[in-house]
Amino acid sequence: MRNVFVDGYNVINSWPELIKMKDYSFESARQGLIDILTSYAAFNGYKVFVIFDAQFVQGSIEKCEKITSNLSVVFTKEGETADAYIERAVNNIGRRNEVFVVTSDNLEQQLVFQRGAVRMSSLEFYNEIKSMNHKIRNKIHVNYSDKKHPLEDRIDKEILDKLEKIRKKAKIY
């Protein structure tokens, strides 16, 4: 299974939609990214970890919250960057699993690459997400358009009965 580590604030500061959200509040930008990653993890079957720096938050301890079976959100402890957390995690996983790291930090990309991970810039990841959304829309469109959806299948039974009574009274066939 592919493991994907995402430098949360790096991505937030790279994607136009998330930058706008961040200008409103960091919490909405974080939640927006988490929502996107939830779909990404589920659609692809990847194990995704999004890491947010809490390095400047005094007294903060490392916190990992499992959002779904495929998505975990990590806030680093005081004094630890997302980069440092990702390096440690990639080292612990080793080369036995497929590992991708999403960040536009060049030094971080080089370090994780040396440890056997595949690096992906925030912009490349943005394009991958857009491509995934396009595939999802196409799949929904194909599944929906291939099926007939008669009106009687979509209307509440009680309303359908009332319409049938009206039709009979008006003798409409």
Structure write-up:
The chain is 55% helix and 17% strand. The protein has helices at residues 8-12, 16-24, 26-44, 82-93, 106-114, 122-145, 151-154, 157-170, and strands spanning 3-7, 47-52, 63-68, 71-75, 99-102, 118-120. By secondary structure, the chain is α/β, with parallel strands linked by helices. The relative contact order is 0.14. It folds into 2 domains: 3-134, 3-Layer(aba) Sandwich (Rossmann fold); 145-171, no CATH class. The mean pLDDT is 84. A 6-stranded mixed beta sheet has the order 3-4-2-1-5-6, sandwiched between helices.
The number of domains is: 2
CATH topology of the largest domain: Rossmann fold
Low-confidence stretches: none
What is the spatial order of strands in the main beta sheet? Answer: 3-4-2-1-5-6
Highest-level CATH class of the largest domain: Alpha Beta
Overall geometry comes to elongated
Provide the residue-averaged pLDDT. Answer: 84
Helix content, binned percent = 55-70%
CATH architecture field of the largest domain: 3-Layer(aba) Sandwich
DSSP strand count: 6
Furnish the topology, listing elements before pairings.
Blueprint: E1 3-7, H1 8-12, H2 16-24, H3 26-44, E2 47-52, E3 63-68, E4 71-75, H4 82-93, E5 99-102, H5 106-114, E6 118-120, H6 122-145, H7 151-154, H8 157-170
Parallel strand pairs: 1-2, 1-5, 2-4, 5-6
Antiparallel strand pairs: 3-4
